[in-house]
Specification:
about 220 residues, about 75% helix, globular
Length: about 220
């Protein structure tokens, strides 16, 4: 397993570097300017956190390892672990961006992403991630495109509803969605549903991976 992480080290370091640059630029813009543009990027951070893991390009590396005789079980779980590490790093990026920008934004001084709301972000990220991994076990075609697109759209829509619930916290229409976090039964059910769906996608991906024909 550790050998697989070494194989993915450039992808992991690349993702970490991209996140560090993103956070530094956005937070510096919020602190040093009065441009609402940087505030927009702050609010877009959760969507970036979802996109980076889902775009994780581990399929090529995994096929390379398989081609050189690495066990399928090690390859698959190494792939999953590397992608999960990127997800955790992206969650940290979201928390860090909102924390450092707290009180310095133009249109709205603060939005608090606590552990309950971060759990919702994690559920959306994992669902998009498993949809991406499953798509890599499919041959190129409409089924692969449909699987990837559906996972992205559903995750994107889920995170957009979370964001809107934060931003419109004074609207009575959204009272049922507050507090935004797993302490709220509505969000607990939604987040649990995405995690359960992610588990199903992961199981299907594992089954398909065991039958995957590797071509280099």
């Amino acid at each position: 397993m550790l050998k697989m992480l070494v194989l993915y080290r450039r992808l992991l370091l690349g993702a970490l570097g991209a996140m560090a640059v993103y956070v530094a630029i956005v937070v510096a813009g919020v602190w040093l300017t009065d441009l609402s543009l940087f505030e927009t990027y702050v609010f877009a951070t959760p969507l970036v956190s979802m996109a980076l893991p889902a775009m994780f390009g581990g399929g090529t590396m995994t096929n390379l390892a398989l081609g050189f005789g690495a066990p399928r079980r090690i390859c698959f779980w190494g792939w999953q672990l590397a992608a999960l590490l990127i997800s955790v790093l992206c969650l940290a990026m979201t928390w860090l961006t909102f924390t450092l920008a707290d009180g310095k934004m133009v249109e709205r001084e603060s939005i608090t992403w606590d552990w309950g709301s971060m759990a919702l972000l994690f559920a959306g990220c994992v669902f998009a991630l498993q949809g991406s991994i499953l798509s890599h076990t499919m041959e190129k075609g409409w089924r692969r495109s449909l699987t990837l697109t559906a996972a992205w759209i559903l995750s994107f829509a889920f995170l957009m509803v979370v964001q809107v619930s934060f931003l419109l916290d004074d609207e009575p229409l959204f009272d049922v969605l507050r507090p935004v976090g797993i302490a709220n039964p509505v969000w607990l059910a939604a987040g649990g549903g995405f995690l359960a769906a992610a588990l199903v996608l992961g199981v299907i991906a594992r089954i398909r991976f065991a039958k995957l024909v590797v071509s280099l």
